[in-house]
From TrEMBL:
GO terms for molecular function: acyl-[acyl-carrier-protein]-UDP-N-acetylglucosamine O-acyltransferase activity. It holds the Pfam family Hexapep. One of its GO terms (biological process) is lipid biosynthetic process. This is Unannotated protein.
Amino acid sequence: MQKNIIHPTAIVAHDVELGENNRIGPYSIIGGMGCKVSIGSNNYFGAYNLIGSPAEFATGCPVEAMLDFEQWSAANPSQVSGVKIGDYNVMRDRVSIDAGIKQVTTIANRCYLHSNCLVNHDCQLSEGVVLAPGVISAGTCSFGKYSQIGVNAVLHQGRKVGAFTMVGMNATVTRDVPDFALSYGSPSRTMGVNRIRLARLGISKDDIDATNDFLNGLNQTCPESVLLLLK
C-alpha cells in the first residue's frame, strides 16, 4: 500500500474517503461542511484546490444555519450531496469542484483539469475528459469520454458535451454538443467533425467524412467504426 502525500498546509476533512498514492498540494481544502467527498487512488491535486464546497443552492439556508453548515446539512440531506473522484486524475492549481445537490458531482478516471477550472454542482465528467485552463462549467453539465474543452470556454447550465468532442477556446456553450463534433464560437456552434481526434484513433478518412456528413444532416447513419468508440 502506497501512502498519500498531503502538504502540511492542506486541509483534508476527517470524513473524506481517500484511496492511496494521492498527492495533495499546498493550501488545498478537501471536504468538510457536511459534503461527502470520495477520492480513489493515484490522483494529483495542485495548490489551492477547493473540493467539495457546498453549491450555491445548498447555501441558500437560513442565516443562522451558515454558522454551522455541517449541522444544517445533516438535517437537510436532500439539499446536499457530495463529490466522487476516481483514479489517475490530475487537478492542477486553483481548481474548484462543488458538491452535488441532486446527484454526486463526479470526476471519473484519467481526467485532466488544468488551472483555474470550475466544475459546478452535479456535473458528470466521464473518463479522459480534459478541461483547459480557465474552463467554467455551470451546474448539471455532462461531458462524454475523452472530450476536450478549450481555454476559457464557458458552459451554460445543463449542457451535454458528447464523447470525443473538441470545444474551442473562449467558446460560450449554450446548446448541447453531439458526439465526435468540433464546436467553437460565441455562442458555440457545431462546425463539423473532430477530424484530428478520429484520425488519431485510426478512423479512415472515408469514415471521418461520412461522420462529418452525419453531423451536418446529410447522412442518416454514422459509420460503425466510429460508433464502436462509444462502447
